[in-house]
Specification:
It is built from 19 helices and 2 strands. It is mainly alpha-helical. A two-stranded antiparallel ribbon has the order 1-2. The relative contact order is 0.12.
Length: 419
């Protein structure tokens, strides 16, 4: 009954948001009547007070949920903190700024000294990593609005086959590499541009992103947190840091009796089962495989680096200046100016020197060439390490949370008879 009340509240919140979206889109404005097109409004700069308020609320929420997870081990409290984070950081603050997108600010600041990164972005980027280093992914549990909106609709989660998790689990690494590449070249913040849920938070946006977000939400009913598990680039960093966390949430606090009650409790397949003594006998074959994968990993790095570098032109084409330079090279000087694209007319009217544009575009393309080599090498390294990791054997005699994949949602704790 308690769960029904919680989900009723959640559905009510989402329904109000959805009806508001519909009310904004329909009916269409009457352009031929007395309707007057409003003048473009420029958003006011947010007062500094609200930036400090966001930081204070963020750190307070992160501290409270960490205490609730580690000390109180309360799923109910985690759920309500998730609802708060969804309402405040999601619908009230419109999903910005968030740690997921802040990694682009950090990347851009590292490669563009002239870029001044906001203090808010630095704190939002570092704080979750710091908490994760000591306590696991408590940020993911209920502070991230992207995770919260998925977590509370995971009503009928199913377990996925290991090979599906491994194959789709490579996507966040590729997405991370692309996000860093485009931010480092000053091209775009693709994480923010293609954020599937921010359109819901802002009640506006493209129908394509709305559609993708809707598909992810519907999928999330049966496959828990699909964006977090198979797309989130910031989750890659949290996953790696969480593996060495010292005070991570445990199911039975080291007193597991192997009752198997928690075996199917995790909707994210983040509980590692006991391996059994029989697995210890096959170490020779595993070591041999690991040596082979260790030898082929450098080859993978070179092959994927070369392969991705072949597409550096296509990757660079996303950059506006590169596209503009290509258009400037192909225009017919005898063509009527009235038929030129708007961006070319704007460039010509600015009085800028076209040779400078060509030099800048060539510099950007070269950066993409170098960056695509690094991106490809990174992907090859991830492939190689993933293959090697599959051969690593770790003996377990009890049920343990997988520190990298566990979102510290505390769903497994009520299943354990050891308190």
């Amino acid at each position: 009954m308690k769960h029904k009340i919680k989900y009723f509240f959640l559905i009510l919140v989402l329904s109000v948001s959805t009806f508001d979206i519909i009310a904004q889109r329909f009916p269409a404005p009457e352009f031929e009547g007395d309707y007057k097109i409003p003048q473009t409004q420029i958003s006011k700069v947010q007062p500094v007070f609200f930036e400090y308020l966001d930081i204070a609320v963020f750190l307070a929420t992160l501290s409270v949920i960490t205490w609730v997870i580690i000390k109180k081990r309360s799923r109910k409290a985690v759920f309500w903190i998730s609802v708060f984070s969804l309402l405040y950081f999601g619908f009230y603050r419109n999903g910005c700024i968030c740690p997921v997108g802040s990694l682009q600010n950090v990347s851009m600041a590292l490669f563009h000294p002239e870029y001044t990164i906001p203090v808010t972005a630095i704190i939002f980027f570092i704080a979750p990593l710091g908490f994760t280093l000591f306590f696991g992914r408590t940020f993911c549990a209920g502070v991230c609005p992207l995770g919260a909106i998925q977590d509370i609709i995971a009503l009928r989660p199913v377990s996925l086959k290991p090979w599906i998790r491994y194959v789709f689990g490579l996507i966040p690494f590729i997405y991370l590499g692309l996000a860093v590449l485009y931010a480092a070249t000053g091209t775009d913040f693709i994480i923010c541009r293609y954020d599937p849920f921010v359109e819901f938070f802002r009640h506006s946006g493209s129908s394509l992103i709305f559609g993708i977000g809707g598909i992810l939400l519907v999928t999330g009913i049966f496959v828990a947190r699909p964006y977090c598990r198979f797309f989130c680039p910031y989750g890659v960093l949290l996953n790696l840091v969480s593996r060495v966390s010292r005070r991570h949430l445990s199911i039975a606090n080291g007193k597991c009796v192997n009752c198997r009650l928690c075996e199917s409790a995790c909707p994210f397949d983040a509980i590692d089962k006991p391996t059994g003594l029989e697995s210890k006998k096959d170490n020779r074959g595993l070591v041999k495989k690991m040596m082979i994968y260790g030898l082929i990993t450098p080859v993978l790095i070179l092959v994927t680096g070369w392969s991705v570098s072949r597409f550096h032109g296509e990757l660079a084409h996303v950059n506006f200046k590169v596209r503009l330079a290509e258009e400037m090279m192909t225009i017919d000087k005898n063509i009527n100016n009235a038929t030129l694209p708007d961006e070319i007319k704007a460039f010509q009217s600015s009085g800028s020197v076209v040779e400078n544009l060509y030099r800048e575009a060539a510099s950007i393309v070269y950066r993409f060439y170098v960056g695509s080599w690094i991106l490809g090498g990174f992907i090859g390294l991830v492939f190689g390490l993933t293959l090697a990791r599959l051969t690593i054997f770790r003996y377990r005699d009890e049920y343990l949370t997988n520190k990298g994949n566990c979102y510290s949602c505390v769903r497994c704790v009520p299943y354990c008879p050891i308190k």
